[in-house]
Design goal:
The protein is α+β, with helices and mostly antiparallel strands. It has helices spanning about 10-15, 35, 45, 80-90, 95-105, and strands at about 50-55, 55-60, 65-70, 110, 120-125.
Length: about 140
Amino acid sequence: MAGTRTVSIDAEQLAGKRFAYQSDISLVESIDLMAATPGDDLNWLEDIELLVEDGVPAVFDRNSNSFLKIYFEIPEGRENELARKVLIKHLTEGNSYGIQLKDVHCKFPQVDIGPWVENPRSVGSDWKPPVLEGWEAPAPH
């Protein structure tokens, strides 16, 4: 649309779709944050809070530098808990765009999804720089 300016990108724009857990609280209610957290340290989750993006409740996904909007009714007093559960669901299902980019762009070995899942796949051990078809390096001077 001409004249429209986007100042932020949300997870729906990156994925081209809305995820069911953004609209259905029952899909995140049973998530045990302690069990989903690597080790016994929940400190990283303490930084995750419910925010508002474009007037809609949202949680920030650092992996893709985007907002994950939440469309279900959030009971008072559970704002941060539910934001954290939605984010964990998003990460463990591999739906974060930043996680998806690792297959192609990861330059050193690491787990694809992260320590939130058991036996994650490893990526980045065979990275090769992308090559543009038909491009040749300039001759040295």
